């Protein structure tokens, strides 16, 4: 074996080089495992799924509480917050309700835990405030445009052309008062109608407008639910789906309701890009009033499917205490945030009442399933807010 | 005369003024850096955040977890907010942390019960809502560095690398008995094989650079750069190798040249003189050196091939079938031929020496499969493939110049055997490559 030494040296050099580069490139992975000062737990929400311990950070939008300071909305507050406006009466006795909405388009807020998005809002939240009136009331909504673009409000319902918010935009810094009579009763969306329409809607300029029938509806624990989505990377596909603005929020903050108590949900779909959205209730059935324009339910079901701007009223009560899911039965939406929980408790009313923003609800404990018809006590109209 | 001398001297002496001219650019550039870093608004008034960019370099599937290796390849720091599987949001852990400095990497671990053989898209969403996705065509358990898995890879490496190269080397006695024309045919056939392998390595690394590496790495430039540097440094090394070898083996040869080289053995001058004058020794020694260089070049190539095979198993991109292994085996047999062809007309080479060359060429496949299978990194794969390409082109150059010298007076492209051999070599590679 008379190998020239240089050949052997060269071979050795190549081997060292190969191993050197390999070690250099892979050493960091093992280094990162060493600083095990703290251990966090991930997973375990789903039966059969492993629970991991990590030295790093946890990314868990299904159980993280979003910071209310940066969040685009507080879903629990929004749920039962109905704005009845500043009330006055005209000479002929008609109730006049004045509202002020401020449009803005410059803020960046948290729309899902850790995800920040340039939101366009009415009064700083997505969805915008829920406006509520009684059929026949005169409503006056002053829109102040605090944004950088033209904005408007287009209400669904019956009103004159110049109050439709389509052909007249309000310039940045401008102001306009929409005035019309609330008619007919039902549940409606409102949204900005400036071009490009898709852009103004998908950024968040929408909310719910409820018109109560003159005779009112049976007393109930009322809530509003608006289904939407966020396309945070502008590829005309939603990255997140929600009910009331924050994905998965009601999973870690279940909506507390009482056993046998009538629940009424004003449900509006404002989802952009996807043609359909739906609402499915677990372990129960509900009366569905399409568009809320009739007092007789259209359907007794556990799922309702809606296109954009379609809406309705759901009425149900739970027979058994426990946790119940409600979510889009388009499972993609459910798994990207449109999922929540009802926590049904025995009807002791005290703890629940603290959470409720709804006033003038009495005799909660006395309310039973036998009252589950539309002829008994009514929600008084007006006088609130 | 005196003035001229002074002039010459002054150019060599460094005056204070010269130092000043040397230092001033650094001071100015330093000042600019300080200014720009401290007041970024001075040039660019824009408040728009640069677009984030993340590369998901690899995805590993193991017991009820999916692990994505991500790197921040954007221009600024990034915070990762959420992870998803098939566009469905899942809880995940990120190590070492969710905020990544430029070019820093992290491991995203998603507890997920996945199904073998199904495609998965792993998504990562940054804090501005941008989602990045990497699709895996077929989920397969990541190889664990166990003894069993290591020996499986060793076996694959042996089939794909060692055995075929050895088979090719067995042709050595056959090649020794060839006429000069046929010998030229086989040499150029070798060159053809190698050119094919070199181009293949470049294309392969380019594919990885484009698909798996972020533009921030400038990986395509890196390929060319690494290949060129490898080429010129191996050229230098082989030049030195031939000089040393011809000097050392002088007493063994009967072709004693009239030139003495007994002066200072380490002097550069004598090296150059002996290398330029003892052409006949070169004729004898150079083939072995070329063969050794070919063995090393092919070894590097096979290392890259091993990396690719290991990585393909790891990434679930390929189910290693016996057909695939057979294809690689046939494809690589020609590599053994490439090693022995230049030595056909030199003195007999001991079997052990041939065996060592075979191991140098084939063995790295096993090491490559281990590294690729257990510790895949696309950037490392690109670098190794480029080194392999540079090494192979250097070998082609050596064979070319060797054939040019042995065919003196006739020229390379005047010999039809050489043209046909070269074309045939590439064709063989192409056809056997169809099997892979």
How does this model look, in words?
Chain A has helices at 5-32, 75-79, 197-202, 249-252, 331-335, 350-355; strands at residues 40-43, 51-54, 57-59, 86-89, 95-112, 115-122, 131-134, 138-145, 154-155, 175-181, 186-191, 206-212, 221-230, 240-243, 255-258, 263-269, 277-281, 286-290, 299-301, 303-306, 311-316, 322-327, 339-345. Chain A is mainly beta. Chain A has one domain (75-371): Cupredoxins -  blue copper proteins (Immunoglobulin-like, Sandwich). In chain A, strands 14-13-16-21-18-19 form a six-stranded mixed beta sheet. In chain A, strands 4, 5, 6, 8 and 10 form a five-stranded mixed beta sheet that branches. In chain A, strands 15-23-22-17-20 form a five-stranded mixed beta sheet. In chain A, a hairpin with an 8-residue loop joins strand 18 and strand 19 (299-301). Chain A is globular. In chain B, the strands form two sheets. In chain B, strands 3, 4, 6, 8 and 9 form a five-stranded antiparallel beta sheet that branches. A four-stranded antiparallel beta sheet of chain B has the order 1-2-7-5, with no helix packed on it. Chain B starts with a helix and ends with a helix. The model of chain B is unreliable at 250-277 (pLDDT under 50). Chains A and B meet through helix 1, strand 1, strand 2, strand 3 and strand 6 of A and strand 3, strand 4, strand 5, strand 7 and helix 6 of B. Strand 3 of chain A pairs antiparallel with strand 5 of chain B, so a sheet runs across the interface.
């Amino acid at each position: 074996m008379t190998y020239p030494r240089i050949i052997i040296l060269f071979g050795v050099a190549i081997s060292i080089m190969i191993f050197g580069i390999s070690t250099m490139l892979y050493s960091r992975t093992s280094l990162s495992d060493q600083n095990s000062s703290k251990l966090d737990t991930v997973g375990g929400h789903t039966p059969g799924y492993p629970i991991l311990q990590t030295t790093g950070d946890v990314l868990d939008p299904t159980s993280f509480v979003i910071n209310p300071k940066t969040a685009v909305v507080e879903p629990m507050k929004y749920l039962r917050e109905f704005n009845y406006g500043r009330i006055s009466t005209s000479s002929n006795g008609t109730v006049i309700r004045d509202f002020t909405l401020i449009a803005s388009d410059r803020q960046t807020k948290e729309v899902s835990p850790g995800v920040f998005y340039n939101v366009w809002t009415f009064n700083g939240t997505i969805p915008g405030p829920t406006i509520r009136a009684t059929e026949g009331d005169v409503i006056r909504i002053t829109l102040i445009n605090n944004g950088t673009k033209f904005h408007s409000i287009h209400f669904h319902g019956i009103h004159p052309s110049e109050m439709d918010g389509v052909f007249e935009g309000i310039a940045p810094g401008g102001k306009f008062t929409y005035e019309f009579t609330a008619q007919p009763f039902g549940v409606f969306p409102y949204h900005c109608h400036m071009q490009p329409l898709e852009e103004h809607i998908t950024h968040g300029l929408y909310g719910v407008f409820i018109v109560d029938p003159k005779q009112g509806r049976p007393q109930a624990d009322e809530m509003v639910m608006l289904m939407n989505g966020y396309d945070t990377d502008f590829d005309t596909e939603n990255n997140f789906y929600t009910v009331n603005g924050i994905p998965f929020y009601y999973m870690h903050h279940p909506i507390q309701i009482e056993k046998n108590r009538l629940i009424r949900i004003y449900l509006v779909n404002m989802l952009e890009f996807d043609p359909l959205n739906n609402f499915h209730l677990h372990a129960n059935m509900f009366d569905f009033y399409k568009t809320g324009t009739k007092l007789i339910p259209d359907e007794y079901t556990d799922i309702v499917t809606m296109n954009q701007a379609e809406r309705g009223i759901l009425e149900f009560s739970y027979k058994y205490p426990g946790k119940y899911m409600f979510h889009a039965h388009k499972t993609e939406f459910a798994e990207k945030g449109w999922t929540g929980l009802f926590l049904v408790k025995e009807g002791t009313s005290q703890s629940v009442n603290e959470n409720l923003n709804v006033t003038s609800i009495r005799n909660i404990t006395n309310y039973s399933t036998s009252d589950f018809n539309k002829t008994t006590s009514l929600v008084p109209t007006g006088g609130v807010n | 005369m005196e003035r001229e001398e002074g002039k010459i001297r002054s150019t060599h002496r460094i005056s204070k003024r010269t130092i000043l001219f040397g230092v001033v650019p650094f001071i100015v550039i330093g000042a600019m850096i300080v200014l720009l870093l401290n007041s970024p608004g001075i040039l660019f008034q824009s408040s728009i955040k640069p677009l984030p960019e993340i590369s998901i370099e690899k995805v590993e599937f193991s017991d009820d977890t999916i692990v994505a290796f991500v790197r921040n390849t954007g221009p600024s720091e990034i915070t990762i907010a959420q992870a998803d599987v098939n566009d469905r949001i899942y809880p995940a852990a990120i190590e070492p942390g969710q905020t990544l400095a430029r070019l820093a990497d992290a491991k995203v671990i998603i507890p997920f019960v996945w199904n073998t053989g199904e495609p998965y898209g792993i998504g990562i969403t940054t804090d501005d809502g941008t989602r990045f996705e990497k699709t895996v065509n077929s989920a397969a358990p990541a190889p664990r560095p166990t003894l069993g898995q290591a020996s499986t890879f060793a076996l694959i490496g042996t089939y794909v690398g060692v055995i075929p190269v050895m088979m090719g080397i067995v042709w050595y006695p056959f090649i020794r008995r060839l006429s000069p024309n046929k010998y030229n045919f086989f040499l150029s056939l070798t060159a053809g094989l190698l050119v094919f392998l070199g181009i293949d390595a470049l294309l392969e690394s380019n594919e990885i650079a484009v698909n798996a590496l972020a533009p921030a790495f400038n990986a395509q430039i890196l390929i060319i750069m690494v290949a060129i540097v490898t080429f010129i440094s191996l050229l230098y090394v082989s030049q030195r190798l031939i000089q040393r070898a011809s000097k050392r083996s002088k007493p063994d040869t009967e072709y004693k040249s009239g030139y003495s080289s007994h002066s200072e053995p380490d002097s550069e001058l004598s090296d150059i003189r002996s290398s330029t004058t003892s052409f006949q020794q070169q004729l004898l020694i150079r083939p072995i050196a070329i063969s050794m260089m070919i063995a090393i070049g092919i070894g590097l190539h096979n290392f890259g091939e091993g990396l690719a095979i290991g990585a393909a198993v790891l990434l679930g991109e390929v189910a290693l079938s016996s057909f695939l292994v057979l294809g690689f085996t046939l494809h690589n047999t020609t590599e053994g031929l490439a090693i022995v062809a230049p030595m056909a007309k030199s003195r007999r080479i001991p079997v052990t020496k041939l065996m060592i060359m075979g191991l140098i060429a084939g063995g790295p496949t096993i090491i490559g499969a281990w590294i690729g299978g257990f510790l895949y990194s696309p950037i490392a794969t690109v670098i190794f493939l480029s080194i392999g390409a540079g090494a192979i082109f250097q070998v082609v150059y050596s064979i070319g110049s060797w054939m040019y010298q042995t065919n003196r007076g006739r020229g390379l492209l005047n010999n039809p055997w050489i043209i046909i051999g070269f074309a045939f070599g590439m064709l063989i590679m192409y056809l056997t490559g169809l099997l892979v």
